[in-house]
Amino acid sequence: MKFCSECGSQVSVKIPEGDNRERHVCTDCGVIHYINPRIIAGTLPVYEGKVLLCRRAIEPRKGYWTLPAGFMENGETTAQAAARETIEEAEAEVDLHGLYTVFNLPHISQVYMFFRGEVIEGKYGVGVESLETQLFEEQDIPWNELAFPTIYRTLKLYFEDRKTEQYPVRIEDLQPPYRKH
Amino acid sequence: MKFCSECGSQVSVKIPEGDNRERHVCTDCGVIHYINPRIIAGTLPVYEGKVLLCRRAIEPRKGYWTLPAGFMENGETTAQAAARETIEEAEAEVDLHGLYTVFNLPHISQVYMFFRGEVIEGKYGVGVESLETQLFEEQDIPWNELAFPTIYRTLKLYFEDRKTEQYPVRIEDLQPPYRKH
Fold first, then answer.
1. How far apart are CA A167 and CA B104, in angstroms?
2. Which residues of chain B have pLDDT under 50?
3. Chain B: residue nearest A11 by CA?
4. Would you call B18 and A80 a contact, using CB atoms and an 8 Å cutoff?
5. Mind listing the domains of chain A with CATH numbers?
6. Where does the Nudix hydrolase domain start and stop, copy by copy (chains A, B) (predicted)?
7. If we measure between CA atoms, which residue out of B10, B102, B134 comes closest to residue A81?
């Protein structure tokens, strides 16, 4: 940030009075601009025991497999954001079965939130941000071609929890260097 | 947002190519400015069965009772944000016992996340954003003087769950008109 989004003047980086962190503060109108972490919401879409994955058509990690997920937008709930991303990336409507994984990625100021979901009538397609989409049995998951650690961990936890059919909400911090897969 | 924070030129509101929502787009350098929901992290600090509440010294809801909570900052985890806010508002260090409540407030584009916690050695004070802080027994909670619906719901759920000592993560959407207390 170099300029004030309210008045167009230059901003400086300083600690405002009563604060304890550096902020971007307008040198003219005085407005303090806060920059906060962003939420990425997604689903773990399942149909007849198989998991729906999308191969990314865009960077980062183009060509790698992901769960449908994306930046939460203003005016929606986390569940709505997750369902919307699943439609956009996999053309799949899901019955949501609750929040499942939460990941903190403090080094990039992101919080991921995945919901479990059942793919309605097993219908899915290929959204514009995907090269292809596919339902995978556990033994066929492309573990070495997953896009992000958040995807790897959500799938690992899911197949583990499926043994007992208990799916408590899992919260984990993920920071590089990531554990070996 | 009226001006581009990158180059200082005016922004216009339009739907960028490949997008489906209106964004603030710079008329000069073309940068798209995304505005996303913010996370508010806090704790439910408990000591010897009593809950630590803070009476707010600042607007909104000055003079009303709250759980310690505030905007998550870049570079921290949700748990770190919750613990930091508890130190800032109640001068209390807490042993965190896991994520407990998640609230979507889509009308103001906020997501609240509360962690249960034990106040270490029962020590607490009055932070600069608080008028006073106090440990409350369940029967003494000032139900009609709570600052926000998120506080009311977290306390209600906690006292209910305490009967069975099971505290699964609870996720709720809170939108006006709020249910009658």
1. 21
2. 181
3. B5
4. no
5. 1-35 (2.20.70.10), 38-173 (3.90.79.10)
6. 22-159
7. B102
